[in-house]
Amino acid sequence: MKSTALLMNKDRTVTVLENVEHELYEELVKQEDAKEIHCTIDDQTVSFPAISKVVWCENTIDWSYGY
Fold first, then answer.
1. Alpha-carbon span 35 to 26, nearest angstrom
2. pTM
3. pLDDT tier at 2, thresholds 50, 70, 90
4. Angle at CA 25, nearest 5°, toward 24 and 27?
């Protein structure tokens, strides 16, 4: 099942990952306390700065709403 994962960054910004498999979400949750996050997306290793929380959004996000 694919959905959207929201990474709540320590600097109070948000990183949005769309079309994410639930297994990748679970991998990101395990790294919540790490200083740097590493994962593989579309066969490429990706790094993110430290995060405070990962949120799984099963429904689509309405970007036209004005976020």
1. 17
2. 0.81
3. confident
4. 65
Place of tokens 């430290």: 50
What's the CA gap between 9 and 1, in Å, rounded?
24
**β-pairing, 14-21 with 36-41?**
unpaired
> Where do the DSSP E strands lie in the chain?
2-9, 14-21, 36-41, 44-49, 51-57
pLDDT at 64 over 80: no
**Long-range contacts (CB closer than 8 Å, 24 or more residues apart) made by 36-44:** 37/7, 41/17
Rounded average pLDDT over 41-59: 90
Residue identified by tokens 């066969």 is 43
Residues 37 and 55: their CA atoms lie apart, in Å, by 15
For residues 59-67, average pLDDT = 67
